[in-house]
């Protein structure tokens, strides 16, 4: 008897040791039980993020998020809890910015069987909606576009029939998987149809001039979804479907610019041989060792689409605002000015943001605002922003707010002239420039300038312990007298 109890005690001690960790609500990193703040992002264990303060969102109670329990709720009880009710204005007009969102996209979540929470979680949209609302960006400024499920025929604009059927089939199961990291539950197919339909309708409204621009706050994300495969947390390719919608609403040339930290292999594949859709991506590549491994600068499109894929592959992590803006100024803007799109979609992942647990990069809300502003100026405001990845709740809500502010016409001002790329950034941008100059006019002077910067930086690079993240100093900066 005594022995048995001793045995139990010993066993439960071990369990306590194993269980003694908590997962940060903000960045999902695991922390030992005796720490009160997240070692990764600094968030307090009991900060109440999502329940109170800056990120708090007034959304449905748990009960209403559960479709089964919801059947027992009266309509008026549900309406009482609808997210942001006074701010949803159904009318649209040509000067307006529209938000696409549907709370049913929160029902897509991983049935918890693993010890670690999945980064692509419903809280992402709760945090963004809460952050936009707290920043005062909703009331009176934005309108909400009614959400709609994409039809199966629309999904087949970019996906195979068997892919659409495979995603639909997941609604019959409590939990299913496409590979190891792409989950589905009973509501995932519904959420994916809503995400796609919302992007299609926003794009159509923009092309028809019913709204100026739009922000699709959707999940599951889309840019890894291939024509026949769900992967990388993505079920249907929302941005690709929006591009097809733009073409069928009368646009002749569509551009998708993808600043998610991962390469949008799905979007690139779907339009690989299509010259009517220009795909531009900046992503962490690491010579193919960063997920999903595609997106080398040499991937430029095939057949009729040759020259209509532009890849800017960062060789390492730690890339920030100055490299992103350098890429915009030196490759992206020159190419997109020549392409002259009728419609532009931003595949806006916020996982290159500072603090993201997957991306390991350094982009700030101001960096996102400047990128948006450059495209806003080119497109006279006509932009569709589609959420892709981004897994630090504070980073994504601040970044989304910064982007939305630009969509609403608030300019972030001039890009600071002191911004200069790092050696790694310069390397990627000049490689992309050289390759793309086969298809697009790249200013001879800026090519030459980059080569000069590069050879100067190479010397410095070797002197400074080969750190590719050090800023390069341009000839101007060096020539300037001190003081
Ligand atoms: N070692 C988006 O951001 N990670 N998807 C796999 C394998 C998958 C990211 C890691 C990351 C997918 C939309
Ligand atoms: Zn991503």
From TrEMBL:
<dbReference type="GO" id="GO:0000118">
    <property type="term" value="C:histone deacetylase complex"/>
</dbReference>
<dbReference type="GO" id="GO:0040029">
    <property type="term" value="P:epigenetic regulation of gene expression"/>
</dbReference>
<dbReference type="GO" id="GO:0008270">
    <property type="term" value="F:zinc ion binding"/>
</dbReference>
<dbReference type="Pfam" id="PF00850">
    <property type="entry name" value="Hist_deacetyl"/>
</dbReference>
<keyword id="KW-0805">Transcription regulation</keyword>
<feature type="region of interest" description="Disordered">
    <location>
        <begin position="461"/>
        <end position="483"/>
    </location>
</feature>
<dbReference type="InterPro" id="IPR000286">
    <property type="entry name" value="HDACs"/>
</dbReference>
<dbReference type="GO" id="GO:0141221">
    <property type="term" value="F:histone deacetylase activity, hydrolytic mechanism"/>
</dbReference>
<feature type="domain" description="RanBP2-type">
    <location>
        <begin position="22"/>
        <end position="41"/>
    </location>
</feature>
<keyword id="KW-0863">Zinc-finger</keyword>
<keyword id="KW-0678">Repressor</keyword>
<dbReference type="InterPro" id="IPR037138">
    <property type="entry name" value="His_deacetylse_dom_sf"/>
</dbReference>
<keyword id="KW-0479">Metal-binding</keyword>
<keyword id="KW-0539">Nucleus</keyword>
<keyword id="KW-0804">Transcription</keyword>
<dbReference type="InterPro" id="IPR001876">
    <property type="entry name" value="Znf_RanBP2"/>
</dbReference>
<keyword id="KW-0862">Zinc</keyword>
<dbReference type="GO" id="GO:0005737">
    <property type="term" value="C:cytoplasm"/>
</dbReference>
<comment type="similarity">
    <text>Belongs to the histone deacetylase family. HD type 2 subfamily.</text>
</comment>
<dbReference type="InterPro" id="IPR023801">
    <property type="entry name" value="His_deacetylse_dom"/>
</dbReference>
<keyword id="KW-0378">Hydrolase</keyword>
<dbReference type="InterPro" id="IPR023696">
    <property type="entry name" value="Ureohydrolase_dom_sf"/>
</dbReference>
<keyword id="KW-0156">Chromatin regulator</keyword>
<protein>
    <recommendedName>
        <fullName>histone deacetylase</fullName>
        <ecNumber>3.5.1.98</ecNumber>
    </recommendedName>
</protein>
């Amino acid at each position: 008897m005594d022995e048995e109890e001793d045995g139990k005690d010993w066993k439960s001690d071990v369990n306590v040791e194993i269980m003694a960790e908590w997962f940060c609500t903000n960045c999902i990193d695991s922390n030992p039980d005796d720490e009160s703040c997240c070692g990764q992002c600094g968030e307090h264990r009991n900060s109440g993020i999502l329940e109170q303060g800056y990120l708090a969102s007034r959304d449905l109670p748990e009960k209403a998020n559960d479709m089964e329990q919801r059947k027992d709720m009266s309509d008026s009880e549900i309406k009482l809890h609808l997210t942001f009710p006074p701010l949803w204005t159904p009318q649209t007009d040509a000067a307006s910015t529209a938000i696409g969102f549907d709370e049913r996209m929160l029902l897509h979540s991983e049935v918890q069987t693993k010890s670690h929470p999945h980064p692509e979680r419903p809280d992402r949209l709760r945090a963004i909606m809460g952050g936009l609302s707290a920043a005062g960006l909703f009331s009176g400024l934005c309108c909400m576009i009614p959400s709609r499920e994409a039809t199966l025929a629309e999904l087949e604009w970019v996906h195979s029939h068997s892919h659409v059927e495979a995603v639909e089939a997941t609604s019959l199961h409590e939990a299913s998987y496409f590979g190891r990291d792409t989950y589905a539950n009973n509501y995932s197919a519904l959420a994916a149809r809503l995400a796609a339909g919302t992007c299609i309708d926003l794009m159509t409204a923009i092309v028809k001039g019913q709204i100026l621009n739009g922000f699709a706050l959707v999940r599951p994300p889309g840019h890894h979804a291939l024509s026949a495969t769900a992967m990388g947390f993505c079920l249907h390719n929302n941005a690709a479907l929006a591009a097809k919608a733009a073409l069928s609403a009368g646009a002749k040339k569509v551009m998708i610019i993808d600043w998610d930290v991962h390469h949008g292999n799905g979007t690139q594949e779907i339009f690989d041989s299509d010259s009517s859709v220009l795909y531009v991506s900046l992503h962490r590549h690491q010579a193919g060792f960063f997920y999903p491994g595609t997106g080398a600068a040499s991937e430029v499109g095939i057949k009729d689409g040759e020259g209509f894929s532009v890849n800017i592959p960062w060789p390492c992590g730690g890339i920030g605002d100055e490299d992103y803006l350098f890429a915009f100024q030196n490759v992206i803007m020159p190419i997109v000015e020549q392409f002259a799109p009728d419609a532009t979609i931003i595949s806006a992942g916020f996982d290159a943001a500072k603090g993201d647990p997957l991306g390991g990069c350094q982009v700030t809300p101001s960096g996102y605002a400047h990128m948006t502003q450059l495209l806003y100026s080119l497109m006279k405001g006509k932009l569709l922003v589609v959420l892709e990845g981004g897994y630090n709740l504070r980073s994504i809500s601040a970044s989304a707010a910064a982007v939305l502010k630009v969509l609403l016409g608030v300019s972030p001002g001039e890009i600071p002239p002191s911004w200069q790329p790092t050696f790694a950034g310069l390397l990627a941008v000049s490689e992309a420039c050289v390759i793309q100059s086969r298809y697009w006019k790249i200013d001879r002077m800026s090519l030459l300038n980059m080569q000069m910067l590069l050879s100067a930086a190479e010397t410095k690079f070797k002197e400074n312990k080969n750190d590719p993240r050090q800023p390069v100093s341009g000839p101007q900066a060096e020539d300037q007298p001190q003081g």
